[in-house]
Amino acid sequence: MDIQAVVFGTVGGLALFLFGMSFMSEGLKMMNSESFKKVLRSLTKTRGSAILVGMGITCLIQSSSATSVMVVGFVNAGLLALSQAIAVVLGADIGTTITAWIVSTMGIGKFKITAYALPVIAVGFMILFLSRKRKNRMFGQAILGFGLLFLGLGIMSDGVKSVKESQMVLELFASFGRNPILGILAGALVTSIIQSSSATIAIVQVMAFQNIFGLEAALALMFGADIGTTITAQIAAIGGTRRARAVAMANSLFKLFGALLFVPLLVTGVLRSAVMACIPGTVDAATGNNGAVMAQIAATHTAYIAVNVALFSTIFWPLLVKASRRLARISADAEKREKARYLDPILLDTPPIALEQCYKQLAFMTRLVRENITAAINVFLTKDLAGIKDIESKETRIDELQDTITSYLVELSRRELSEDESRAIPRLIHCINDAERSGDHAENLCELTELRINKELAIPDTAMLDLQKYFELLDQQFEAVIHALKEKDADSVSRALELEEQINGEYQVLFDRHVTRLDDGTCTVHTGVVVMDVAANLEKIADHLTNIVERVEIEN
Fold first, then answer.
1. CA-CA distance, 381 to 531, in Å (whole number)?
2. How far apart are alpha carbons 455 and 445 in whole angstroms?
3. 41 pLDDT exceeds 60?
């Protein structure tokens, strides 16, 4: 056995495989960020739709770990209920099985997808580096990543060939077939280290294809890989909310008990017999390769996950949710309280207190808007697009808060109210709408940042300084409005209105300076349009904040 070839080929091929998968995933996610947002908003409907969404996203980005981490993040932000998040994770586990099917094409008949890896890499490279539009460049990145993935797979396959020359290694792998528990533990350990069940299963498929071990050992390693991949979500949940930890716990419980359900079938040989009956195959006498085993592993993986999802989303669903709650030490209604911390249904029978709580919830919502606008301005000033994902997540949370507070007020309007209380409800609804519209400008600012980067616009330092000072005025108005909502004092209301007048006046000053820069040639027309669009967005936010503060009832 050529140890150097095995180590370099396997490790290098695995590294290229993981890089290709990550590169392809990032390209697809960036190309479809808005689509992801729209899809995730639909998760509040049914458990079935949540499973389908999780499956669809993972089929696209090729990583159940990435989907699980994303879901943990949304739960942390209060955007998803625990039960919805668990359903998405179950769907993600189905979606990730497509990777094994893609890998299995390497050993089906005469079609060897690895032979086309280099042409695919060339096409992806050309699209990525020659395209000027961001969406086309991300498409090229996805194609390039796809090619690298299979190039790494081919290198791994060549690297492990000489393993068949070592009787000691063959005996070790054969022991996994005789002792499935040992194989499961080994698969879980490897996947815990590399944090990708797709990569582990791909390695298993390649080694089985080279006839290094049989189907029994491959299935045991596959079960272990599915258990080991849950560590990624567990790591992501560290330091998060209890609900986020509960999602990670549910994922681990699902994989662990799902494997336990199939272990008896594996130990007794029933599972192997069933697979061989559905997809028969033999070892090629000429090459020594087992061409059918890759498809057998892929089919078993899909069936195994699909059956477990069917069981745990129906019969075992209550137990899964209850167990994950208990392990994370959260009560049944904790997520509801966290999502709308001030809106208690019990208070609806005491309208004055309920209205006061709505003001507090509106102040909390406005604070979220302030944080998001601040983040969006920082993205524009620094040209760092890494923060856009968090901005989109928080914007979704703001939209959901709008629906939550409005529904609470509608329910309150059905109670017996005084004349003043009746008038307060529509005023508050208008305030909520203005707060939500203010938040929408964060996305506009992110789009302007992408335009600035794509067009390679060089904004003068004087213009950037003007925008920074202009935003500082808006941030002061945010602070005054939030304080006015909390305390209902006249000084804060007056302060907010004074700042709005300053913002309007400063907008004209900023415009005049922009014209001067155009005249002296220090600023181009395209650059000036972006600068003034940013200022216009900030000015409109100030208008919405003024609408809010003008409706605040001052306490005497």
1. 11
2. 15
3. no
